[in-house]
Amino acid sequence: GRTVGILGGGQLGRMFAIAARRMGYRVHALDPSQDGPAGQVADVEVVAPYEDVDAARRFAEAVDVVTFEFENVPSETLAAVAEIRPVHPSPAVLDTCRHRLREKRFLAKGGFPVAGFAEIRTEDELRAALVRLGTPAILKTAEFGYDGKGQVRIDAPESAGRAFEALGGKLGVLEAFVPFACELSVVVARSHAGDIVPFEVAENRHARHILDVSLAPAGVPAAARARATEVASDIAKAIDLVGVLGVEMFYLPNGDIVVNELAPRPHNSGHYTFDACVTSQFEQQLRAVCGLPLGEPTLLRPAAMANLLGDLWEHGEPQWDRAAAFPDVKIHLYGKTEARPGRKMGHLVAMAETAEAASARVLAARSALVSGRPGADPCP
Ligand code: ATP
Ligand code: MG
Ligand code: MG
User: For tag attachment on the chain, is the N or C end more exposed, with fewer CB atoms within 10 Å?
Assistant: First the structure.
C-alpha cells in the first residue's frame, strides 16, 4: 500500500507529508483544524477533533499504515485506529513517552541515566521530595507539557506551596536540577527489521524554554557524541521502536550524559536533516513506518537551524527578501496564518565549514528579517 495516514496536523506532519509525497506516497492527515500545516500539503485532510473515534476509524480505513506527529491523541482514538491498521510507533511507545513518570520509570528501569525524580500528588509529597532531591529542582506536570509549559523551578523549600499550586491539581513530577554544560539530542530511527540508524548528535540552545538554535555536529568531544548516540540507540531498542525517536539529553561538565525526555516522532532539533543529510528525519519516519529499509543519515556538511517564532511577526510580516538575500540559508515556513508569541512558524537552515559558522549565518538571516523595525536588534 502507498497511502500513509498521519495523526496530527502541525509542522511535523507537514514535513512528513512533503517527504512522503516526494517518494510517491499518498498522505492523509487527521487534523482538528481546517487547513493546518500538514493538511495544506497532504493529499487528503480529514478535519475532526482527536476525540472523534468514528472519524478516526474512517480515516484509518482509507490508509494502509498510520503514524503520528502529535503526542496527545487520546488513547481511545489511537486504540480504535490500531484495531484497523498498523500504527507505528506503537500505541505502547506513545503511552510511555507522553507521560513523564512512565517515561522516567522506563528509562531508570532500563539502566539509562536520568535525573533524580519523584511522583508528586500532594504538597507533603513535594516537601519530602525536595528534601530528598534538594534545590534547585523543577516541578513539571506529568502530561501535556511542551516548550517549558507546565514547569516551575523551585529554588528554595519555602516555595513548595506556591509551586504545588501551579500544578493546579494535576499529577506532577519533581526533577533534580541538572547543572548541564549544554543540551544535546539524538534523533534515531528503527526499522521493522530492527535496524537502528541514528542521526548526528545535535547541540540545542533554548531561549525562554523554547528551542532556539540547533547545531550539528554538537560541539562536544567525539567520545561524548559516541556515548549520546549509543544511549539513544539503546533506548530505541529497549522501547521496541518502529519509527523515529528524538532523545533529549543534558551534557554535564564532567562528560556524563543524562537523558531528559523522549519524543516518539521527528524532533525540532532534527529539522536541519531536511537540508543537510542524505536522508531527512521525515523520510526516515516514512521508511520506518512503511517497512522500507532505512536511508543513510550522513550529514553532508556541518549545519545549524534557527527557529522562527511568532514574535518575529510582532510589527508585521517579516522581511522575507532580506533573509532570501542570504543565498546559503534555506527558509522553511509552516503555512500558519496566525502568528502568536512563542508559536513555531518556521525555521532557517544553513550549512558551513563548522556548525558554529552555520549558526552565525542563520542568526544573521533571522536578524535581517526584522532589522530596522521598532525593537529590532540595532546591530544585526
Ligand atoms: P519540549 O518542548 O522539549 O517538549 P518540555 O516542555 O517537554 O519541552 P523539558 O524538555 O522537560 O520541557 O524542559 C525544557 C527545558 O527546561 C530543557 O530543555 C532544559 O533547558 C530545561 N530543563 C528541564 N528539566 C531540567 C532539569 N531537570 N535540569 C535542568 N534544566 C532542565
Ligand atoms: Mg517535552
Ligand atoms: Mg524537551
Answer: N
